[in-house]
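hiii, so i know i said id send this last week but things got crazy w the move. better late than never?? heres the sequnce for the chain we talked about at the cafe, plus the structure i predicted for it. fair warning i was half asleep when i ran it
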Amino acid sequence: MIDTTGRCLRNDKRGAIHPETEKLIIRLGIDPNQWLKHVQSYGRSYGDSAGSRVSLLQYADRFKRRWSKGIKVSSECYLRTS
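okay and structure toks below
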């Protein structure tokens, strides 16, 4: 999955998401149409945690925070919320 994503993002490693990788991305609960956008904005989109909307909310609750950076992005990328 990492290799395929890298080939999609870098000009010197052109390619597309392989169908098997796309199946894995879906199995992980991620929208394949949002995957590359998600990876490209990863550093800007998340703070000290990353994951689904639910996991970010649980993280914030666990560490007594009122919010967690990345909730909106996760809501757009992850297909399921559990």
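btw The chain has a mean pLDDT of 79. thought thatd interest u
miss u guys!!
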